[in-house]
Give the backbone structure.
Amino acid sequence: MPLELQLSLPLILILILSIKIVMVDAKFGNNKTLGFVTALAGFIVVFISAAFTLTISPEAIASLNAEELYSKGTITYGGFAAYFDMLFCVAAILTILAALPYFQKENSEHNAFYSMMVFAVAGMMLIAHSANLLSLFIGIEIMSISFYVLAGYFRTKEKSIEAALKYFLLGAFATGFLLYGIALIYGATGSLSLPEILTKIAADDFSNTYLTLGIALMLIGLCFKVAAFPFHQWAPDVYTGAPTVVTAFMSTAGKAAALIAFIIVARALFVIDIGQAAEIPDFQTNAIMIIAIISAATMLIGNITALVQKNIKRMLAYSSVAHAGYLLMGIVANSPQGWEGIIFYATAYLFMQIGAFIVLSVLERKTDKNLDLDDYSGISKSHPFLAAIMAIFMFSLAGIPPFAGFFGKFLLFTAAIDAGFTWLTIIAVISSMISVYFYIGLIVYMYFRKSNTYPLEADMGSAKVTLIISTACVVILGIFPSLIINLINNFF
Amino acid sequence: MHINHLFINQKLDKFGIGLYRYSNNYLLEKNITVLESYLPLIFMVVFGFVVALIFLILSEWLGARRSTAGKKTTYESGMEPVGTARERFSIKFYMVAVSFIVFDIEVVFMYPWAVQMSQLGLTAFISMMVFIIILLAGLYYEIKKGGLKWD
Amino acid sequence: MINAIPLEYYLGLASIIFLIGTVGVLVRRNAIIVFMSIELMLNSVNLTFVGFSTYLGDTAGQVFVFFVMAVAAAEAAIGLAIVLALFRNKQTIYVDEVNVLKW
């Protein structure tokens, strides 16, 4: 098999899977488990093929001549793209395992859900692989459009549809800004290919007005997609209204995909200071300062608003806004350490947030019952397993040492300090301390309050697998972070 | 440029620039700029407005105003109007309209390919076949789900 | 290119249309009209792309326009479906009456 075909195999396989799953839905629509099995098997196959491309050495990939490739420089291969392929597949597998009992409980149809999950993962993988503004844009759109549908998946529920409408209108609005930014960057540099844009910026060969405006507009679009401060208002509403399993997927894998888009764009537009290199252009220092302010505001706003929430789903939604703020610190650092920090934290965050939302989905009843803090008082007696793993996820989200969240924050904070953003790190530490209050608050409710309601039912089914895998990953990544760090060290 | 190879090659580009030159030569002969060549258009727009305005004022000034029951009814090509004009459409029209939007726009990718097919060769042909197969998969799904059923 | 319409004219027109679309999204309350304003924004971007593409003599911008159009069509289909589902649930398509989710 030629090397390029091997490298693009994950993308080809997910394309085949997305056609296959639509066919399965069309042909065997009334078979409830066939769509699930197809999606699960497909994701596992894509995961294996991505893992395989990760073993191909970077030298071999670099030796491919861009002009002779079929992809002609629109796609990057191997490295962090392959890693993110694996990550998205894992997130999708965890989500659909939990979705099966969830949809049975809600008496909802399944098959369209698996199709949309496959489409969303295809879009995310395209984002991770993109080396060109065109493929980046298409990836973002495939992902977003699938998410609009997934958010409104319970189409007879008012909340779900409302979430979908808000997400759709604001998402499409942000797409307009993103596109206008891309158009102006294209006009300023005369190219859509990100490596070419980087060479032109490094050689000071661009039109400054259009580029500055283009970067500003593109930042607006991307900040919207990661739900950063001035454009974060949609996130809590959408995350609360969407079906819980969808929220689990959207707020983790979706956020990771938006951040990888951020990394890809930042690597092309922002020249790294390597000491003797040409001086850094003004627009770049300003842009990074603006991202730093956005990052600081995002974590403060997210954590402070989460303090007053009584609904756990909404609290986690706000905390996910705050985590977007931490992740943006890696972009601010604008260095390989920063990007590695993002990748590690995105991985850790994915497992702990999916785990926390899946615990919610297991305990949730029809018509959004059992989502308030009071409902969780004293559940350590009736559901010791769920309470224990929820506590682990909460400790990890708060960034308390033996768990994965701590090392992610540690990497990001050190990267920011190395880049000279000490004030940002101080704000990040303060907002982490604020977040401890509500994360530990939930644990207090679960362990030290008397149960004041009837005992909750919990039927886990295959969601148990999700919970065990994500708990294991959170603990293992916390104790042996070098497993991942060694892997991602040679990506940039 | 990387993505150029996909659909458009040098020849089409030359064709476009050629057209452009032609119009430029024409303008150079007449010794006017492109912007000046738009002058007749502006005259026409202004003239159209003025004429319309004159007729409006004239009819206001000269015309008599008599209202009858027949004049007040909805215009239905001389027929007696039946029912209200604000009637709701069946949801079937919506289904057809949405399918039309999606499948109609996809054809946009086929035009450049069709024009340049002989130059683009086998790779582009295979790519387009893959694209069409994906579209057919969508169509199959729609038929199976009853999206095209009228009753 | 001395005789041609300057690039700035295209960009100016596109930015005005983009602004009209943005204002439309912010002030209108009917979901369908909001959506139409968004489409207006996308089309102004298309104009920008075509203008730059001609100016630079590079066809990549025009290819991008095709993709924007295809994406806009997909978005239109999804958006109309969501608005329809909303109307079935709430008998309204005014975005300020859609307010179950609040903190």
Q: What stands out?
A: Chain A has 21 helices and no strands. Residues 308-492 of chain A form one domain. The CA atoms of residues 59 and 78 of chain A lie 11 Å apart. The longest helix of chain A spans residues 158-189.
